[in-house]
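Re: the request from the purification team.
They wanted to know what the chain is likely to look like in 3D before they choose a buffer screen. I agreed to run a prediction and write the result into the notebook, where they can find it.
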Amino acid sequence: MKLINKNNDLFDPTPRLKSSPVPAFFIPFKNNEEKCNYCKNKYSETLEFKQKYCKNCFLRYIKCNNNIYLDVCINTNKTNKCIKHDVISTKNIQEWCEYCSEVLYFRQIIPNDLLFNINRKTYCNLCGKLIKQTNSILNYICPDCYLVSYEPVESNSIIKSSQNFLNISIIHLPWWDSYDKCSICHQELKYLTDCQKLSISM
């Protein structure tokens, strides 16, 4: 996956998905949180990758959205299967049943650990292409459907010892990242806002 220099406002990081008009409150911003920031219910985990999400807020999100905003795989719970549904595996959130559906995984949330089997063939839910099989987080998602971009920014919060402003590169991720630690230096991240994190050691 290559970085793209974001030099105009027309850049779309997820060309096959649209930006949702409804906030995704069902995803934790910090992976070490146990309760939903929005409704205070305990987070559930996906069947694969143990990604945290709030079922209550996810149901609310599904009612307000259609399938063009979310890259998700859903399975029917075989033990709690209701009489209305056969055992299914679907990528369409409109087929969600609050009684028997389970989230297998969210493609837009990078797993905290690489729990997936790199020997298993994985195809992109959006374009159908085979995703390159490596153990890199960046190769968990399709490089054609999720574009990582960056832009140089003059920082007013990080100052060099000479008191000059420091130019830093801001990386724009096309997925939800709930990591607590920097993937490079493994130090705890500092949270600036509910959508910005900073590695202090960088």
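For the purification team: Residues 148-198 form one domain.
Please add any questions underneath this entry.
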